[in-house]
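Chapter summary example.
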Amino acid sequence: MHITMVKKKLKGGADCRKCSEVTEHLQSRGLWDRVDEVVWAVEDDPQSPGMLLGKRLGVERAPFFVVRDGDKEKVYLSVLQLIRERLGETVSTLEQARDVDPDDIGGI
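The structure predicted for these 108 residues follows.
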């Protein structure tokens, strides 16, 4: 199993807020070392590796994860879903509630 995390880099050079939060969450749970690769989607560079990967997979928001098992690929838009389904960890109700991002409510 190979896990790729796609993180967004803003025009000013900083990580996006949600990307930083997800990274901190994985680190706090001792799971960061399970991420094999980080690919950057640079906000003002449509040819950056993360932007190209997102386009190929039909994903328009970062962070997201791509898990490869042999020739199979699965996309995870939620770090908690990744943790639960692929990393064999439990996720509390409180963590699920905290995972709701106000920026994601109400569409684009």
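To summarize the output: Strands lie at 2-9, 37-42, 64-69, 72-76.
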